[in-house]
Design goal:
By secondary structure, the protein is α/β, with parallel strands linked by helices. The chain has 16 helices and 14 strands. The chain has a 7-stranded parallel β-sheet with strand order 4-2-1-5-6-7-8, with helices on both faces. Strands 11-10-9-12-13-14 form a 6-stranded parallel β-sheet, sandwiched between helices.
Length: 387
């Protein structure tokens, strides 16, 4: 029988519902998968005020939640809550293992520590964290990794980054691949979504990512502009508003393709499924990913994928995507046009993509994480000093 924590704590102090992106999706999917594997596991989630007030997550519904009295939108409050308040609340609850689900963790506390480090974007593309925030994130991640009994990485690429950039011993890192958002039983309604978002009848190219510089959407716009207007598809870029998003809108206007791009903002789950159903190609030009769930989500829905091979993307996509150099707009454009013009290749990638996506499940993520917990609990206690 695998050794389990007597009382597992989940550090979700970072999570602001609707604003935390992939790390929120990870928490929402991982918790029920973990309980499905080990329903007897005693778990307490530690959340911030925003998450406690919003509700609607497995924290508080599937597992009890304790509110750390901070607002995570205020970065200083979040750090103070995680580093100072969380250890006290965890001690009061009797936690013996704390799993921090998003890159940072409390340095103090009498419990074993596991931290999932999704990526080292703050080191590789510091512009993604906007200045001084990248330096602060660097210190917090380094501290979390140093104090952890086990570190979970979502890909071998991320593990290699931890070893190369932080000097983390490779034997301390468990590679635990993540699952992805499964398609609903009924496919999205492409026609209704086209009408609601005013997409017209042109072929749709979909790209789904946070609007941050390292996602490389500027070069995607440049690529679109190189495709002759008579065969140019419609590019749809959903996502919540950011300052970089406004820069992208201006760039589209400068390139003369504002009529060929849609920025629908944050879309509902219904419209997102409709966009997948309408899309002829899913394109993902990111310069760095720790995992790359959007690629798998598109594959699971049968959308042919063209993507960058950077970071973990080659590992995650396997032979089920058409790759391009993300720094060459002409290559991005050629990949898009090839999939639009070659139905046989598009169909091959649809089939290969579905098969590839089936290899990544949250049940496997839960089992790999339980193995990491067992290793963390097997680390010997530090020796007491000799009087």
């Amino acid at each position: 029988m695998r050794r389990l924590p007597a009382h597992l704590g989940l550090n979700l102090v970072y999570l602001v519902p609707g604003e935390t992106g992939g790390t929120e999706a990870y928490a929402r999917e991982f918790i029920p998968a973990l309980l499905a594997e080990r329903p007897e596991l005693r778990i307490t989630a530690f959340v911030n005020r925003e998450a406690a007030e919003t509700g609607g997550g497995p924290w508080g519904e599937l597992v009890p939640a304790v509110t750390v009295p901070v607002r995570a939108r205020r970065r200083a409050e979040w750090v103070a809550g995680e580093q100072l308040l969380l250890p006290r609340l965890a001690a009061r609850a009797g936690i013996d293992l704390m799993h921090s689900l998003a890159n940072t963790s409390p340095a103090r506390g009498r419990y074993r520590r596991v931290v999932t480090v999704h990526d080292l974007i703050h080191r590789i593309h510091p512009e993604a964290h906007f200045g001084v925030a990248a330096q602060a994130m660097g210190l917090l991640v380094r501290l979390a990794v140093a104090r952890a009994d086990r570190v979970i990485a979502p890909s071998t690429s991320s593990r290699d980054d931890l070893v190369r950039l932080l000097g983390t011993p490779a034997q301390k890192v468990d590679v635990v691949l993540q699952g992805h958002g499964d398609p609903p039983a009924t496919a999205g309604d492409a026609g209704a979504t086209r009408a609601r978002l005013e997409l017209g009848e042109r072929p749709v190219v979909l790209s789904l990512s946070a609007m941050r510089p390292h996602k490389n959407l500027a070069r995607l716009l440049e690529a679109l502009a190189t495709i002759p207007a008579e065969r140019r598809p419609l590019l749809v870029l959903p996502g919540y508003a950011t300052g970089h998003g406004e820069e992208l809108r201006r760039l589209a206007a400068e390139l003369g393709i504002e009529g060929d791009v849609r920025f629908p903002g944050w879309v509902s789950a219904e419209d997102l499924e409709g966009l997948y159903a309408a899309a002829s190609v899913f394109v993902f030009p990111s310069l760095y990913e720790g995992f790359g769930a959007p690629v798998l989500e598109a594959m699971a829905r049968g959308v042919p994928v063209a993507c960058s091979p950077r970071g973990s993307l080659a590992e995650v996509a396997g032979d089920a995507a058409r790759f391009f150099d993300p720094e060459r707009p002409a290559e991005i454009a050629a990949a898009i046009e090839a999939l639009l013009a070659d139905p046989a290749e598009a169909e091959r990638l649809r089939a290969a993509g579905r098969e590839q996506a089936e290899r990544f499940t949250w049940a496997k993520t839960a089992r790999g994480t339980l193995a990491a917990y067992e290793r963390a609990l097997s680390v010997p206690e530090p020796a007491l000093p000799v009087p």
